[in-house]
Predict the structure.
Amino acid sequence: MDVVVYHNPACGTSRNVLAYLEEAGLTPKVIEYLKDPPDRKTLESLLKRMGKTPRDILRKRGTPYEELGLDDPSVTDDEIFAAIAKHPILIERPIVIVGDKVALCRPSETVKALIE
């Protein structure tokens, strides 16, 4: 089974999810998204598979979210994608792909549903 984790090693939740997957005997492909951010097409695909919008995956804490005015409901998806392209830290993490399932695994326990 293919497993991919969009991971930030500085994030405790992301580390917990990665440890859980490894303890379950899985060997995930780890993508450190701050070093290797997903392009818009990839993000759109992940969002579609999760049933989420770009706004749903925006990280607020420790990011330029407020400085960029992303809390304004009139900000478009195109503007959000542009902000993410410039500041990948805006992507909430971890996003995990297990086979054909994709989820934003926050809280970390969310990952359990992907491998059961």
Q: What stands out?
A: Strands lie at 3-7, 29-32, 95-98, 101-104.
